[in-house]
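As the next step, I selected for study one protein, both as residues and as discrete backbone shape codes, as given directly below:
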Amino acid sequence: MPDHYEMYGTETSISTNGDRIISPNNCLWLTNLDIQKRHDRLKLTKVYSGNEDLYPKFDNFNGINVNRTQDIPMDYEGAIGVPITFLHKYNPSQFEIIQFRKGDDGKDLSIKDKCPYFRILIKNKQPSKAPVISSSLFALPNVEVGNVISD
């Protein structure tokens, strides 16, 4: 690291031969090596159906925006714009990367004429239906009420 750079951060040091070393905390190593982490499935708990207002559509691409990886809906079958931080949870058997950052017009993705932070467009390879909660789960069982004897 050059002498004019400030030494700050949690891991800085000077080597025995005088080299200045800083370990950046904003870097991520991505690989296509076949390691276990690539096979870890992302547990999806959010639902698009019935919550469409929480997932705005892009102006210039047929897809929805998701601001946090944990908010990816389990039941959406189309394109989903996710933050770049999604990459460290990417499982190629669960998601397909469609493209990066740009809409159909070649411009940055936009929502209501505003551009969100960098987005990766993905598609869930195995969307699951949203769980259906039957109203019968909350109904009381049919109980015959006979004559009530009182004192």
About this structure: The CA atoms of residues 9 and 22 lie 7 Å apart. Confidence is low (pLDDT under 50) at residues 137-151. The first strand starts at residue 12 and ends at 14. The chain has no helices and six strands.
